[in-house]
Amino acid sequence: xxxxxxxxxxxxxxxxxxxxxxxxxxxxxxxxxxxxxxxxxxxxxxxxxxxxxxxxxxxxxxxxxxxxxxxxxxxxxxxxxxxxxxxxxxxxxxxxxxxxxxxxxxxxxxxxxxxxxxxxxxxxxxxxxxxxxxxxxxxxxxxxxxxxxxxxxxxxxxxxxxxxxxxxxxxxxxxxxxxxxxxxxxxxxxxxxxxxxxxxxxxxxxxxxxxxxxxxxxxxxxxxxxxxxxxxxxxxxxxxxxxxxxxxxxxxxxxxxxxxxxxxxxxxxxxxxxxxxxxxxxxxxxxxxxxxxxxxxxxxxxxxxxxxxxxxxxxxxxxxxxxxxxxxxxxxxxxxxxxxxxxxxxxxxxxxxxxxxxxxxxxxxxxxxxxxxxxxxxxxxxxxxxxxx
Length: 389
Ligand code: AMP
Fold this sequence. Notes:
This protein has three domains: about 10-95, Rossmann fold (3-Layer(aba) Sandwich), CATH 3.40.50.20; about 125-185, 2-Layer Sandwich (Dna Ligase, domain 1), CATH 3.30.1490.20; about 190-385, D-amino Acid Aminotransferase, Chain A, domain 1, CATH 3.30.470. It is built from twelve helices and 18 strands. The protein has helices at about 15-30, 60-70, 80-90, 100-105, 105-115, 130-140, 165-175, 230-245, 280-285, 290-300, 330-335, 365-380; strands spanning about 10-15, 30-35, 50-55, 70-75, 95, 125, 145-150, 160, 180-185, 190-200, 205, 210-215, 220-225, 250-260, 265-270, 310-320, 340-345, 355-360. Helix 1 (about 15-30) packs across helix 10 and helix 2 crosses helix 3 (about 80-90). The structure holds adenosine monophosphate (AMP). The site of adenosine monophosphate has 13 residues, from strand 15.
């Protein structure tokens, strides 16, 4: 099949910040976009895409989108599988594809796929009855993590279990068997790292650099590129992510998150067949952004080599920064720092824990980039306009 002709329309299910930058990347490449999202003021609806305001399972809206687009994609993995099938029934391909979508919706399927490919993960067990949970505790031992198998993101739907006393309350908090759970062994990790890989229709794979991530309360806080890990870890991450992308028959991009254990093993934590928060730094620091690379794959264009041009760091700007202030954070103070780039997603309600934007710094070294990015974020909210260092 030929590449998507210029001016063709790409459908995007989901209109959050990832959709916003997919729209912008599509426009760069001469395409137009139709975005489907329930929020009439969603981030992707503000940048020149046509917006269909509807729930993801509204058949009429899905039909309307399918009638307008040449190809479709999704910006988050919790799009219902039947919605994608509905679009496909109109003869419209949805990339990265159904297999990538359905596997990445379910932590049990993700880890089972890894197991089948010989890719290491934390020990895990699928749990649907209270008795399964007790058996899993016996195998895996404390402390452990219990997570909902589907629907969780940004640390939601998961609890640490340190001893037998809290098992029953965690079981109840996570739905008491109303949906499947996964129990995972606790990983005492030295670092968390992630990689974005792109896979074209012909199976060609390109690898973005491995980056290091810090999370706070389950939400990504800081990404540093490149990860300060040995070449062996970086090579393994490429190998595993490439194998997963091929097994998922992916056409698009896949982000894979890993733990690096204190004894130097690399364990897959989770994966997402879409642009990833830990890949935002690519907009400045790589020869191609994760958004453009994804649109290239979806449109059947050649992939670019996403090599790192500058060491970089990205900090998320959560709604927390807005709390207790009558004005927005002082973005001008952050932007006065050399190498700083600001992205705001156009969200009007700065709720605690909500991703409102991010800031990337490119610098001479990854350490320096991280220091400057953190300083930039502190400056935005410093009470006296000064800098604590
Ligand atoms: P997740 O939603 O699976 O990405 O989990 C969010 C964050 O919780 C991860 O980035 C880790 O910091 C932490 N976490 C998740 N699973 C585990 C685990 N099995 N052991 C230790 N920490 C974990």
